[in-house]
Design brief:
The protein has 222 residues and is mainly β. The chain has one helix at residues 203-221, and strands spanning 6-10, 15-20, 30-34, 42-46, 53-58, 63-68, 77-83, 91-100, 105-107, 111-115, 120-126, 135-139, 145-147, 151-154, 157-163, 168-174, 182-188, 191-200. The N and C termini lie far apart (59 Å).
Amino acid sequence: MKTLDHVTVREGGSVTIPCLYDSQYKLNSKFWCRGFTWSFCQITAHANDTGKWTITDYPTHNIFTMKLTNARSSDSGHYWCAVEIHAKPDDRKHLYLTVQQAPDVSVMNGSVSGHEGDNVSVQCFYTSGYQNKLKQWCRYKDQSCYTEKRTDTSQNSSVQISDDGRSSFTVLMTGLRLSDSGWYFCSAGDREVPVQLTVQKDNNTYKNTCKSFISVILWKSI
């Protein structure tokens, strides 16, 4: 089980936290539990429950998400992503959630999208106490992280982080690929906030493919 360690969210706002599990547990029941220790945690939601806490399971991606809406300071505390396993200890991962009027780390939008080959940027905000902390942009599934003042290139796409040194840093992803879709997180020090990236197929590529296909059909019919 993989999830974040310390998530921050604005009071009154919402946050979606992804929990990644092993493929062998696709059909197992998923749940969200609150408590300092696993032995005494109280279940707050099961998969497909809706309300203040909503769990949605995505078996094809081996991930389930927990969405908290209308967050209150009383929601701050210790939580667990968990998968129920019969006749064995449940698979679980602990995290801490902090609800603040001015979150230590935050984003304007927890979901961004772009087309294949295009660029996308995410602005991550932090409070004054985190100005000198390490800033990172990390991919969820493999925990690969990109740090500030450095450009990392992977095949045709690249990631660059620039920090204004005052209150925010910006993540720029260029040359998006379909495989870049997924969950990421901004972090400053030990505080984290999740972001979902969706990369859509380039419409021009699709149109050009259709035109080529139609041209071949017309040529063969002549």
